[in-house]
Amino acid sequence: MKYQVLVLVVALFCTPVVPQSPQTRPSYIKSCDEKNPNFKTCALENANYAIPFIVKGDKQVGIPRLDPLDLPLIEIEHNNFKLSLKDVQVSGLKDIKVTSIDLGRTGFDAVFHIENLNIIGTYDIDGKVLLLTLKGQGPANITAVGGDYHVKAKIEPYQKNDIEYLKFVDPQIDFTLTRAYFNFENILNGNQELGSEINQLLNENWQDVLNDLGAPIKETVTRIIESIVSKILERVPANEIL
Ligand SMILES: *[C@@H]1O[C@H](CO)[C@@H](O)[C@H](O)[C@H]1NC(C)=O
């Protein structure tokens, strides 16, 4: 199913960058020679090596601590469906693993595995899911188990001070889960019995509701990966990565 999603991830990664000389690059970013036949294996090893450093946060690059990660707002809107999550806390990113990666001067293609991604926040929902009209506000818990997130993006080389850098453009993500759990407390504005029946129905039909309720998972992961990769590529010249 195709739909339009409008997402606002306000102030994601607004951590100020500590001023420093532009040539310093994060020491956990290692290069792989793209002409080497083992390039993909090398890139995979290096990406997984870098993850624990990135997850702790790197002020010099402007990456905040990622687990837990606080996001002020995620907002999704399509057709007649609206879902916003405020004061969001995302956890589980510390166990992120890259299972395949290909990076070149034209494209980026990688799969990230996140075993347990948990998104907690205050929701406001108004719209149809399955055949139900959902309306309400309250605490929300969205949990994505066994996620494989396939990220594809264009890469555009550009010059800055006569040095070649790579730009990460227009990431697209597809994902599969082994299970999703949803809990929207106070749905239908406080009808307890109906509320727990609705949550039960959403969980029994988790795969069918992912089209609508999966949007926060998809957009959160996309924006986080986009921010991290972009911040690193902004600082590290192409020839120190490829
Ligand atoms: C969120 O839901 C998951 C899955 O049901 C559960 O394991 C976790 O404890 C919940 N977290 C909170 C803070 O309620």
Automatic annotation (TrEMBL):
<comment type="similarity">
    <text>Belongs to the TO family.</text>
</comment>
<dbReference type="InterPro" id="IPR038606">
    <property type="entry name" value="To_sf"/>
</dbReference>
<feature type="signal peptide">
    <location>
        <begin position="1"/>
        <end position="19"/>
    </location>
</feature>
<dbReference type="GO" id="GO:0007623">
    <property type="term" value="P:circadian rhythm"/>
</dbReference>
<dbReference type="Pfam" id="PF06585">
    <property type="entry name" value="JHBP"/>
</dbReference>
<keyword id="KW-0732">Signal</keyword>
<dbReference type="GO" id="GO:0005615">
    <property type="term" value="C:extracellular space"/>
</dbReference>
<keyword id="KW-0090">Biological rhythms</keyword>
<protein>
    <submittedName>
        <fullName>Protein takeout-like Protein</fullName>
    </submittedName>
</protein>
<dbReference type="InterPro" id="IPR010562">
    <property type="entry name" value="Haemolymph_juvenile_hormone-bd"/>
</dbReference>
